[in-house]
Fold:
Amino acid sequence: KLIARDAFNGTVLWSREIPKWHNQLWPLKSGPSQLARRLVVAGDKLFVTMSIEGPMECLDATSGKTLHIFKGSEQTEEIIVENGTAFVLTREGKWELDEYLPKHNVGDQARVRTEFVWDATPRTIKAYDAEKGSLLWEKKDKIAPITMSVAEGCLVYHDGEDVVCLDRDTGQEKWRSEKASRRTLIPFNFAPRLVIYEDVVLYAGGDGKMKGYDLKSGKTLWESTHD
Structure:
């Protein structure tokens, strides 16, 4: 369910059924951490997927009623809303975790770190007018989980090999970094970390390294160890 509560006393304000969500038999503390990127509040609007395979919907945060559904946003995995634009990461084909079944007494937590990992297949970033629901632009590429970040007129992500920067308003590529390494497998309780802070892009790929890039040019500013 999707539940809204009074922030002061916890009273339930409204509740909506979610017909299908992530497998409840998935091992504890094993993610998928991407699920936390499917719900965004912007003012009095709520942007969310109402099923595991569903499109992004815009809800009235006060009543819970759907205001509109974003056409073409089916299989949304991540949502970012910034300055009136909603950016979604959508998938084609089956979700990597769709066919997961537990195997008792064989250590499912170990299995999901090796058998069920990011498949590195291309995804599509779609930018929508958050108020009207109209599609502004789209860009297809390999996009590592939880690396999409938006600030200062830029949309930045990691494509599995490099850090890539797009123009936030047009989707045109502004720069692509030199190789930005990562750990070999990306399980669903982990993701490369990419953060924009002022005019710097910070990136850590889980392989003991961390880098800083200039947001405007993509130039490497520094590199350090990262435990």
Observations:
- The two ends are 37 Å apart (CA to CA).
- Residues 47 and 125 are 16 Å apart (CA to CA).
